[in-house]
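Dear colleague,

Following up on Tuesday's group meeting, I ran the structure prediction for the three-component complex that the binding team flagged. I've pasted the input sequences exactly as they went in, so you can double-check that nothing got truncated or mislabelled along the way. The structure tokens for the whole assembly follow below. Feel free to forward this to whoever is handling the docking comparison.

Inputs:
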Amino acid sequence: MSNPFFLNKGPISLIKVYEFLKITNQKKRDFNFYDIKDLYSADKKSITFFHSKKYKEVAKSTKALFCLTSELLKDFLPKTCEPIIVSNVLTAVASITEKFYPYSVEDKFDNKVLNIENRDYKGVIHGKNVLIGENVKIGTNCLIGHNTIIEKNVEIGDNCSIGSNTIIRNSIIKNNVIILDNCIIGKKGFGFFPNNKKNLRYPHIGIVIINEDCEIGCGATIDRGSMSNTEIGKNTFLDNQIHIAHNVKIGENTIIAGQVGIAGSSIIGNNVRIGGQAGISGHLKIGNNVDIAGGSGVIKDIPDNSRVMGYPAKNLRKFLRENK
Amino acid sequence: MSNPFFLNKGPISLIKVYEFLKITNQKKRDFNFYDIKDLYSADKKSITFFHSKKYKEVAKSTKALFCLTSELLKDFLPKTCEPIIVSNVLTAVASITEKFYPYSVEDKFDNKVLNIENRDYKGVIHGKNVLIGENVKIGTNCLIGHNTIIEKNVEIGDNCSIGSNTIIRNSIIKNNVIILDNCIIGKKGFGFFPNNKKNLRYPHIGIVIINEDCEIGCGATIDRGSMSNTEIGKNTFLDNQIHIAHNVKIGENTIIAGQVGIAGSSIIGNNVRIGGQAGISGHLKIGNNVDIAGGSGVIKDIPDNSRVMGYPAKNLRKFLRENK
Amino acid sequence: MSNPFFLNKGPISLIKVYEFLKITNQKKRDFNFYDIKDLYSADKKSITFFHSKKYKEVAKSTKALFCLTSELLKDFLPKTCEPIIVSNVLTAVASITEKFYPYSVEDKFDNKVLNIENRDYKGVIHGKNVLIGENVKIGTNCLIGHNTIIEKNVEIGDNCSIGSNTIIRNSIIKNNVIILDNCIIGKKGFGFFPNNKKNLRYPHIGIVIINEDCEIGCGATIDRGSMSNTEIGKNTFLDNQIHIAHNVKIGENTIIAGQVGIAGSSIIGNNVRIGGQAGISGHLKIGNNVDIAGGSGVIKDIPDNSRVMGYPAKNLRKFLRENK
């Protein structure tokens, strides 16, 4: 995936892929992969993966020449794409992604930070004990509060105000963004392959992008993406204690009240309002101009211009009528 | 609003008010406003505002001589009160309040804090890296944990224990209060006027008042009020990860379990018990001696001595009978 | 209770017990108590307590020779066990436990910490401003992030990674555990005896035990136990913003998504999956291999191998059928 922060260690040869996955029954040919990408975005130079029937239509037209998949799914692939059969597709994806992006699996603290006085950020007004890692850009007219840590791989635009006790890494923050105290932005998401004895880590090569004029309340956790980015649109405001999981995309002019949680890979439209403590399950699509009442639990897609309430969330009027 | 911390920059003349609001069709008279107050508390020296029919009864008897309002509402005002017609009442209120209280809109970190060793708090037992802003009073026999920041405009009583990594500003903490780690107390609330392209900030001239013998758990966010204070009554205990929004008032001897959220301007009585993860919508009145079961979503007022459960919360027995 | 951290100040004589509880109508005999234990675990050298009819079967066979109880319950005790009648059993328990374990009631910040450079932890890779208290052991190959505070009474195994801005006290962390940023682990739980004017503190002599290969997400609060430990089993993963109350036991290979809360003394099995924002009431038993859907509110025990959803949580299929 293209982003400025996670260095791609490719190319990786087909022979190496077989070796990493302990595949021994294959003819050893010469071929180089330059990246690992999903079925939509893969090109001839990247290895792709196909792990669920849900993606069979996309699979049919993938441009990739090689695809990690299973016996059950391989026949959906076009003739131009050679299946590499593995027993667990996602584990294989994790393994190969880690080879391309070795620093994306774990989230050790950044031990190369320096006190901001020892770095060259003369235009920044900052508090005490501010620590800055490598590869951090900060625009003009920015404020950074006390004890805040900007770890490696962060770009902050102009006129931003970052609170105290906040930690940011692997993120792009655009102009005029306000981030309040105690936030954790850009850590890896809660993605792994459950495994008795010892769960397997899933790489997180996505970043967090917060667009212009947003406000992020106190105590937010916004995780970076695994295979895509986590992104918050312009002029979207988040209240306190909100959790945004990996790969979530939120539109513009959206307002999210306190203690809301949005699970992984869900997409929220523009001009959406989400009441306090509402929860949104993973992999959903919430349209534009949607109102979700406080406390709702959303477990399916919601079309544009809807007003919903309840657990599971349904039409607002219907819910109120049924729950007098 | 009267509180010791936000300096009133008034008086502001009627001519200036017209100018700020770009009202040009009015006769320019000489009149001075000394404050902006709501319909209930406004006197002859303050400008008031009337933005919703809900307040028509109060409007009828306001003592203010001038009121920001709309064409639709102006006829509810008494003859003694002259309407100042604006297209968006709340935006006008925000604009004028900002003129009276220019420092109440944003929450930049306090860059005038000093390490506590460089201030005169000899009786305080404190941890490492404690930072204290201007206009901070601390009573006798207090503890302040490591990395805690007491920003400007805070009064702490006697025998208080503040944890580590906590941030407090614009607050009055009475005697014998315990505040645990990682709390954020006194930041501005989540109040603004939604506006495509760029939301407008709403001033927050209220403070947080925590009365005697309270305990506030780890990770609490307690926002200061906008036009009134946020207040927690004596001997009320809050568990971890609780969010209390702006203008909320909580009574005495109340017990609130983990992860509860209370939305803006709600009033909670004395001897109330709120179970974990319950949510209370904004602008509600919860009576005395009320029990709210964990996980409930309260969306309407609850009378004294009630036991409720559910989402929406209803009589406890009814809910349990219906949900066997 | 036996744990390595809270020093037992016993023995305490029967005469002293009468004195502490202001019991004056008893013959003064010579007898020494070496600990206070619950009905199950008490032996002849410890004082026990019996405060609810729920425990009458256990009471009948207690080995203790003396028991704090009430007039109403005393007749369930065996003849070998002499009742010590008090008006409020739990208040009496709190009072006597505090005599045995005087440092277990409050959670003042640890003011004996030193910067890690001034302690002898040469193998630890650590960030800036790391503070370490007394009686802290750290294994080999560990990382500790910036501004993290390890207060007194902590054991950390080998190969652990602790994030930044995290606070740990009174805890045992086994090998290969990852704890992310902004966590508060080992503080006293939300246990006290409600009392008008001034709530009474309940002692917390338990600790937190986190077993091998666990991961704890950002912003977790894991409280230590009151009369038993809080414990998390091997290879269990917690997402962000989770609250685990005192005395909770969680099994192995369990996965808990963001913003979940588990109330005091509940027991969660192995291989359990709990979706985001779910809440589990106190004193429940959740079996092995249970799936709890996101947003659920669990208010009763759940047997092994169940899948539940809803508030209150019920069979998943039933809930979905009823809520189409």
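The interface with chain B takes residues 106-109, 111, 113, 115, 129, 131, 147, 149, 165, 167, 182, 184, 187, 190, 192, 194, 196-199, 219, 221, 223, 241, 243, 245, 259, 261, 263, 277, 279, 281, 297, 299, 311-312 of chain C (CB under 8 Å).

Cheers,
M.
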